[in-house]
Amino acid sequence: MAKKISRTVLFHFLFSGLTFTFLVTLAISFDPYFLHSCANNIGNYTANSDYERNLNTIFKQITSITKSNYGFYSKKVGEVNAMALCRADVKLDVCTGCLKETISRVKLDCPNNKEAIGWSENCTLRYSNTNLSEKLEINPQLCLLNIQSTANEYFQLILGQLLSDLRNKAAAGGALLKYAAGNLSLSASETLYALVQCTPDLSEGDCNHCLDKAATDGIRQCCLKQRGCRVLSPSCNLRFETDPFFEAGAEFPPPPLPSVDRQKEEEEKQNKSNRIPVLVASLSAIFGLAVVFISGFFIWRRRNSRDEENSQEVQLLDLVNEHSRETFNGENGERSQEFPSIQLDVLHAATNHFSDENKLGQGGFGPVYKGTLANGKEIAVKRLSETSSQGLVEFKNEIMLIAKLQHRNLVRLLGCCLEKNEKLLVYEFMPNKSLDVFLFDSKLAAQLDWQKRFNIIKGIARGILYLHEDSRLKIIHRDLKVSNVLLDNEMNPKISDFGMARIFEDKNEANTNRVVGTYGYMAPEYAMEGLFSIKSVLFQ
């Protein structure tokens, strides 16, 4: 495989499977936005042959178009098949100009090849002696990346959410257009922009699959943690940047109106439908009214039982939106980050639909699952069960408290989800699970020498000190136990599970009528009288 690489452009050529059976010659021209791939094993055409004449005919037709056709053109002349796709937000003159330049570059870099692909910033051109229509092609997969990396810890999470949303929108497009572009806020001063597009001849499932491979394999192998990237395949492409690069207000013309013959057919059908006997219409009306009354009765019966839960849901959604707007200063004056609400389908995909294989454990709140986002980042997802002994109050409490706390010895809450009656909290993943796993297993306990134990003790103490003295809110945990102390990959402790925590204000002690927690860890005055203080946590 011969390669020519520009000094100014960094790229990866990605193989996403062993099914890629033809040899490819890949080159990057001095134009930083142009890439191409030439299939060397398909064969070559000779000068002045029918293949060359047919190919030139197609090139002339494509570059002489006068209708935008949503930027997609598919042509066949003789045995030559060609397909061109312009970015849907560019104008017709930009599209044809891009195609002319791409044709020139492909001719230059893939002379006499019967099959080739060229990618430019605003368009893609491919041709072959085999059928291209309605055929999913993921390979070859290439990428161009922005050499600047990002330090934003929420970048990959927000990118995955944005690409998932755009992928679904694009795949749901019609036979003329499968395109979506949008943005999400990374922080108060920074925005992430992304664009995805498939050739519209693909089915919804094929478009979804193509973009999913680009967002997973493409980004993971090429541009993980970069501020911008373009992933290119024959059937689809995506791009994201922290600077705007697409026409935000691009408007697409409505689908073409039906032809005159089509309108006549519709009128004839309408006339036939008007001749349906009046008796049938009357029976349908009666049946419809019966359905309405029956449905209304059942809705009325269920509404009272759901009113309270719905009001709680609204409060929780308002709380999440409030935290999405607010920013909070981290320890040592770190730059503030936003607290995101994460889409349910992203978490379903990450946890393999909350499968038992991904289940890490079970608590009073509900089960906890391990998840892996599309970019490879591992997360822990806490799912409120319908039979939870804690429920919505603790869910709200945990969001309110931990979203405002930032310390290296407190587990970090990455986001939450409130969709379709699901209530989910997303945390950073702790590979070594909890402290009790090591303490109560004789083999694992042997790994905890005195130095490691001492470091764990100091880490827990630092976390408690932050909660009691150094954070903006003085907080009493009320359920601090070894199973709520998680360990990262370097055995650093992180305090978790703030569902039962209380804000302590400026008092030395307080009293509660609701004693919660694990009795074996409770201070006597708290278990017997509901009296809790800083000393209660130290007892635990």
Descriptive notes:
There is one protein chain. By secondary structure, the chain is of the alpha+beta class. It folds into 3 domains: 3-241, Gnk2 domain, C-X8-C-X2-C motif (Killer Toxin P4, Chain A, 2-Layer Sandwich), CATH 3.30.430; 312-428, Phosphorylase Kinase, domain 1; 435-539, Transferase(Phosphotransferase) domain 1 (Transferase(Phosphotransferase), domain 1), CATH 1.10.510. Helix content is 35%, strand content 21%. It has helices at residues 50-63, 92-109, 155-171, 204-222, 260-274, 278-325, 344-350, 392-402, 435-439, 442-445, 450-470, 524-529, 534-539, and strands at residues 3-4, 11-14, 24-28, 35-39, 72-77, 80-86, 116-119, 123-128, 141-145, 178-185, 191-198, 229-232, 236-241, 359-362, 367-372, 378-383, 413-419, 422-428, 475-476, 485-487, 493-495, 502-503, 509-511, 531-533. The strands form 6 sheets. It has a 7-stranded mixed sheet with strand order 1-3-4-7-8-6-5. The protein has a 6-stranded antiparallel sheet with strand order 2-9-12-13-11-10, covered by helices on one side. Helix 3 (155-171) runs antiparallel to helix 4 (204-222) and helix 6 runs parallel beside helix 8. The longest helix has 48 residues, at 278-325. It is elongated, with a radius of gyration of 30 Å. 36% of the residues are buried. The model is unreliable at 1-30, 251-267, 272-276, 303-338 and 506-516 (pLDDT under 50).
